[in-house]
Amino acid sequence: MGLFTRKRTATPATAAPAGTATPVDPALAALTGDYTIDPAHSSIGFTVRHAMVTNVKGSFAEHEGSLHLDGSAPSRSTASLDVRIESVDTGIKDRDAHLRGEDFFDAGRFPLMTFRSTAAEQLGGDRYRLTGDLTIKDVTRPLSIDLEFNGSATDVYGNERVGFEGGAEILRSDWGLTWNAALETGGVMVSDKVKLTFDISAVKSAPQA
User: Fold this and answer.
1) Cβ-based neighbours of 101, under 8 Å, separated by 6 or more
2) Which residue in 13, 19, 123, 134 is a FRET match for 97, CA 20 to 30 A apart?
3) pTM, 2 dp
4) Quick one: how far is CA 158 from the chain centroid?
5) Each residue of 144-194: pLDDT tens digit?
6) Contact present, 141 and 158 (Cβ < 8 Å)
7) Do 122 and 131 contact (CB within 8 A), yes or no?
8) Which of 209, 79, 62, 192 is nearest to 145 (CA)?
9) b/e map of 105-119 (b: 16 or more CB within 10 Å)?
């Protein structure tokens, strides 16, 4: 995933001379390993403009995913995420049922939204970009997610955690989500642009014997 700067302990990076490799920070390398996203302490959300004048926010309560973090070479990090469409929640039951139906996600036929990373890069400081394939219904298209690393810690149960948050913007029509309704005053009921948000806590897996 490329999220490897301990905000309180890492030594500030300095530019390496041209033609030489960037030194590996031991504190960052120590984060290397496999992680499982903790759904109880993570959220996958979205925001979309409604009736041209306000925003509707929602989230997906059920999701699971895994990360492989490589602190020595962040570009070799990977991420995988599965989101269960039936768990969509905007706070209005009728609206959620509409989103699950054939006009939008068609959850009966396509129960999962998935993301599989293909590349990771550091943008500077604690900022990273994760690129991969987002699949909604039967459409797969590339997506880049900008992320900020929030730190690492050992929780009260002895689990080593990393946290990050970020977001991306998509046009839902690119994934075949085209339902809309015209307004009498002009414009449409639901905007094409959707903002995605990610607030993730992931737990490091125990080394295999």
Assistant:
1) 107
2) 134
3) 0.86
4) 25
5) 999 999 989 999 999 999 999 999 999 999 999 999 999 988 889 999 999
6) no
7) no
8) 79
9) bbbeeeebbebebee
